[in-house]
Design a protein that fits this description.
About 35% of the residues lie in helices and about 15% in strands. The longest helix is centred in the last third of the chain and has 22 residues, at about 310-330. It contains 13 helices and 14 strands. It has a 7-stranded mixed beta sheet, sandwiched between helices. Strands 1-2-3-13 form a 4-stranded mixed beta sheet. It has helices spanning about 55-65, 75-90, 100-115, 160, 175-185, 205-215, 235-240, 265-270, 295-305, 310-330, 360, 365-380, 395-415; strands at about 20-25, 30, 35-40, 95-100, 120-125, 165-170, 185-190, 220-225, 245-250, 260-265, 340, 345-350, 380, 390. Strand 11 (about 340) and strand 12 (about 345-350) form a beta hairpin. About 50% of the residues are buried. By secondary structure, the chain is an alpha/beta fold. Helix 2 runs parallel beside helix 9, helix 5 (about 175-185) packs parallel to helix 6 (about 205-215) and helix 12 crosses helix 13.
């Protein structure tokens, strides 16, 4: 608390009375400073789809460490990773590396605005694309405005940016199409998470957004920082069979090290070629650790594991056991609840309303959810405030322990929700 604002890093943190410091982690387990063990569903906020300290990743990183840690120029692992991304991800004809997902979506938007020669962007309410100024708009508005007006999620965002961001409702194709029809002449890009936070696209929604952006010539960006190499080897664009113009990748592709990437159609990506430097068409992008060879080695080792036959089946089976187990446990506890998401990424909402967009998440009982998360932690299961990530390292034992913890934590929620009998008169 003395040296860090609020005693946190700006990522996951436990409630203050249960705060801990990580000592080490392996597989699906995390150990804290007092040797307490947790089954980990934070997974470093998602990169660790193989679990912590996977032997293949550790070996690849150790080997690369001995060859140098960073070069600020093209290296073998980085080129190999670029080739692998272009092989795997349908829209990626070329890639450019950066270090974080935030940088990737920021660059994707700049590339599209330059290509289209328009300034405005459209994003969806509740969609998260990192923490730059264009992204922190209507991610979590407490009092949502009428579409397409944005609400900044942070202090310090220049007023001028709000004039360049339009907000549309996820999974409402008619309203989204109407906004795009009205504003397409000013739009440089539409950016979306194809699977938004925990909400899958309604049938036809992605296809509809792809259709209108194509008709109106507005580049479509998929933020696949969560879904890339997780929903399928080719990401959500393979899983849902809708191909955008540009993709932002992060998390899994860096194997737990700082690496992210933008991929896309060759003519959009070509705006970054040095031959254009000094012309008005040049899109500038650089970074000290861009395509860092250690991160690339970790990413390549992770992707090699994911290419093993059966890897995705195993990931989805393990996730389904936890996700379906959670839904069953909530029903047994008599709690109104929705478990939203897909097997490797999901969350429980304490509401009887279906979770179809950001506004429907507001119907959920947030306090009940906080009680649930806190009681899970007390039972040795750690998850982020709003998400479970499952990895290939979550085996029978971890899952059984988790299901047991669910029963206890949900009983605590149910108890809290049962009105206590009043004093007898
Ligand atoms: C969908 C999405 N986009 C962008 C980001 C930002 O990535 P980073 O935290 O690497 O900046 C995140 C991070 O969780 C994310 O979930």
């Amino acid at each position: 608390m003395r040296v860090l604002p609020g005693g946190v890093l700006g990522g996951y943190y436990a409630p203050q009375e249960m705060a801990f410091i990580v000592r080490d982690a392996r597989g699906a387990r995390l150990r804290d400073h007092s040797e307490r063990e947790y089954v980990d569903y934070v997974l470093g906020s998602g990169p660790l789809v193989l679990g912590h300290a996977h032997p293949a990743v550790v070996a690849a990183v150790e080997a690369q460490l001995r060859k140098g840690t960073t070069y600020f120029q093209l290296s073998e692992p980085t080129l190999a990773l670029a080739e692998e991304i272009c092989r795997a991800v349908p829209c990626a004809e070329q890639v450019r590396f950066c270090s974080t997902g935030t940088e990737a979506t920021f660059l994707a938007l700049r590339l599209c605005r330059a290509w289209r020669k328009r300034d405005k962007i459209l994003k969806f309410e509740g969609g998260f694309h990192g923490t730059h100024d264009y992204s922190l708009m209507s991610v979590g508005p407490r009092a949502p405005k009428a579409f397409p007006a944005p609400t900044p999620d942070s202090a310090g965002i220049p007023h001028a940016i709000t004039d360049d961001v339009l907000i549309a409702p996820f999974n409402d194709l008619a309203e989204t199409e109407a906004i795009i029809e009205t504003h397409h002449r000013d739009l440089g890009a539409v950016i979306m998470e194809p699977f938004q936070r925990l909400i899958g696209p309604a049938p036809g929604f992605l296809e509809g957004v792809r259709g209108i952006t194509q008709r109106r010539g507005v580049p479509l960006v998929f933020d696949e920082i969560v879904t890339g190499f997780r929903f399928a080897y080719g990401g959500a664009q393979e899983y849902y069979r809708v191909v955008p113009d540009v993709v932002a990748l992060g998390k899994v592709v860096g194997g737990g090290f700082p690496l992210a990437a933008v991929g896309g159609r060759r003519e959009i990506m070509a705006q970054m070629a040095p031959a254009l430097d000094g012309t008005p068409e040049f899109v500038a992008q650089a970074g000290t650790l861009n395509g860092n060879p250690i991160s690339a080695a970790a990413g390549l080792a992770t992707l090699a594991e994911l290419r093993r036959p059966g890897a995705y089946a195993q990931l989805f089976e393990a996730g389904a056991r936890v996700k379906d187990g959670l839904a069953r446990a909530a029903a047994r506890a008599g709690l109104p609840a929705q478990v939203a998401g897909v097997a490797p990424v999901f969350e429980i909402f304490f509401t009887d309303q279906p979770i179809i967009d950001y506004r429907s998440t507001l119907s959920a009982d947030r306090e009940a959810h906080a009680v649930f998360t806190r009681h899970l932690l007390g039972r040795g299961v750690v998850k982020a405030a709003q998400k479970f990530y499952v990895s290939l390292a979550h085996g029978e034992r971890e899952i059984d322990e988790t299901l047991e913890a669910f029963a206890g934590a949900l009983a605590a929620v149910a108890e809290r929700q049962t009105p206590r009998p009043g004093p007898s008169s």
